[in-house]
Amino acid sequence: MRGRIVKSLSGFYYVVPEESGTLLRHKEAQDWYQCRAKGIFRALHVHPLVGDEVEFDITDETSVPKEGNVTAVLPRCNELVRPTVANVDQALLLFAVTHPAPSYNMLDRFLISMDLCGLPAVLCFNKTDLATEEEIEELRSIYEKCGCGVLFCSVRNDRGEQDPLGELKRKLQGKTTVITGPSGAGKSTLINRLCPEAGMETGSLSEKIGRGKNTTRHVELLEAETGENTGPRTFVVDTPGFTSLDLLAVRDMKPEELKNYYPEFEEPSRNCRFHGCNHFKEPDCAVRDAAGSAISRIRYQNYCEIFEDLKSRKPVYR
Question: What are the start and end residues of each CATH 2.40.50.140 domain in the chain?
């Protein structure tokens, strides 16, 4: 049979089978096959991942969950190292507008990491119910030219809207999306809204440090309810912990490559004095001159900080 791995835990791979070309909903345990991987994978240095499409043999139809063995991993579209997941279409970066306030520097590193992975990103700011219009508009002005979609939502407070997550659901529809972001941003609450059967534990925000607790323990593929009953299934991937997404790729960049990951620099850079300007300390730099007008001053400051880090190879975490 063929199916897709939706969870990996303690050496077992939980596979949901195909039926008529589509995946079954996996709300109930009887839809899953608890599988071991054949020993040949170790010899081939292949490790099945959550998100993999696989072939598997059934060994026991009577147990709950049913049991089987993964016999083949089908070709992958892509593969992430942190979290270890395959066949992802896009990343949803979830930050709070406030409480806790977003770290702009770390947010930029996430966007660069996704670009390096070749993974389209959607940036979503949660907790608009706790923010002022000025705070929301400031974030919009900073990231409206960052090269990815920017959304705002309030997962807990729908402000009387019929479907407060409607725009976000449309971005997710028919795709497999890895959801990540700092603790306290509302990731688990959002997943519970998208996947009511998930029953994710939600953490409280620490008054002392202004951050939440990580509540996710393993990587899992969850089927989201987006209101559409036709077309490809919609899946989200919860990730255990903010730093699980692979930010280390940023550290391996050459400093002169960094400007390629700030799309709003492209047009002003045509007026720089030097061809190949790094927009750092060069004279007559049009990008630096545009900071605060055509380019967000915060984004340019982040660029300079990351550029300096890359030159000195300082740790990427702050």
Answer: 2-76
Strands 176-180 and 220-223: unpaired
CATH of domain 253-312: 1.10.40.50
**CB-based burial, 264-290: b 16+ in 10 Å, e otherwise:** bbeebbeebeeeebbbbeeeebbbbeb
Judge whether residue 313 has pLDDT over 60.
Answer: yes
Confidence check: pLDDT of 209 > 80:
no
User: Can you name the CATH fold of 2-76?
Assistant: OB fold (Dihydrolipoamide Acetyltransferase, E2P) (2.40.50)
Segment 160-165 shows an average pLDDT of: 67
Distance in angstroms (rounded) separating the CA atoms of residues 312 and 289? 25
Residue 34 predicted with pLDDT over 70: yes
Q: What is the DSSP letter of 195?
A: -
CATH no., domain 85-244: 3.40.50.300
Q: What letter does residue 212 receive in the DSSP assignment?
A: B
Residue 47 dihedral angles phi and psi, to the nearest 5°: -120, 115
What end-to-end distance do the CA atoms of the chain give, in Å?
47
What angle separates helix 104-116 from helix 297-312, to the nearest 10 degrees?
A: 70
Instruction: For the chain, give every residue range classified as CATH 3.40.50.300.
Output: 85-244
Average pLDDT rounded to a whole number, residues 200-222: 56
Of 164, 206, 159, the closest CA to residue 184 belongs to 206
CATH 1.10.40.50: which residues of the chain? 253-312
Residue 145 carries which DSSP code? T
Residue 155 tokens read as: 């997962």
Residue 302 burial (CB count, 10 A): 22
Cα of 199 vs its chain's centroid, Å: 20
